[in-house]
Amino acid sequence: MKPLAFKGEKITKKRKAVSAEDNLQAQKKTRESRADVQEDDRWVTADAVGDISGPVVIVLPSTLPSCIACDAGGKVFVSKLENVVEVEPHDMRQVWIVSKVAGTDNIGLKGHHGRDRIRYLSCDKTGLVSAQTEAMSSEETFACIATSDTPGAFNLQSQREEFISLTDDGNNIRGDAKSVSFNNTVRIRMQARFKPQLKASKEMKAKEKISRKELEEAAGKKLDDNEVRALKRARVQGDYHEKLLLLRSKGKHDKYA
User: pLDDT by residue (tens digit) across 54-75?
Assistant: First the structure.
């Protein structure tokens, strides 16, 4: 039964209390959304030079899918990829960590053997490719050049302007190819969480994951569908707090109108 009220009397509506459990659930959803962005370890193809960062697999133009790998002793070799559908590594020796050279577009490639076994991919003046040096010099620095006719394909060029290449028999890696060819055109697979476009897309989706209830609690009033959409869009665009303040201000003016 509703309490008795008189005409013209101001009626105060009680706000529904937010339970501690609801708060915990909201916080959990936020943490899970952030974790989804940070832990997306799917392997995707780098489309542009600017994409290339983090752990990568350098896929060779071989008949059977293979990549450049190195063992703990620094030997660089051709390693077959077992997962030919997803094209992802099954052995840590197939993974390289990209190290960008400050002030340039050049990169270094570290073999993945733990912090105590950091070894950079290197190419000497004879074209011998190895991974035995612990620091970067010109021999451990490469330019990653996007091909003009094949999207998502690259050439790795040493500072001597020679290219990392698969030998004609498909069994070895050399670093003395004088010009661009099929044998030195590679594809680069990388983890999705490091790819700028995918990372930005994931972060935008994470920002959109907020319920109507949470938005209404922040605004201090019931919201219509248009207001909910506007606030969700504002979270993505970065002006959420400004929109929220405008809604609160509008609510106060409506109240005393």
Answer: 999 999 999 899 999 999 889 9
> Tens digit of pLDDT for each residue in 142-198?
999 999 888 899 999 999 999 999 999 999 999 999 999 999 999 999 999 998 875
Extract the tokens encoding 218: 């922040």
Q: How many residues are present in the chain? A: 257
Comparing C-alpha atoms, which of 214, 212, 237, 236 is closest to residue 225? 212
Question: Do 174 and 156 meet the contact criterion of CB atoms below 8 Å apart?
Answer: no
Name which of 196, 204, 156 is nearest 44 in CA terms.
Answer: 196
| Strands (E) located in 26-135 | 43-45, 55-60, 66-70, 76-80, 96-100, 106-111, 119-123, 129-133
What CA–CA distance (Å, rounded) separates 103 from 25?
45
Q: What is the DSSP string of 8-30?
A: TPPPPPPPPPPPHHHHHHHHHHH
Q: Six-digit token pair at 234?
A: 């504002």
How far, in Å, are 28, 57, 67, 218 from residue 90 at the CA level? 33, 11, 11, 47
Cross-strand bridge partners of residue 133: 120
Distance CA 120, CA 137 (A): 10
Phi-psi region of 47 (alpha: psi -120 to 50; beta: other; left: phi over 0): alpha
- The answer to whether 227 and 240 have CB atoms below 8 angstroms apart is no
Q: Is the pTM of this model over 0.70?
A: no
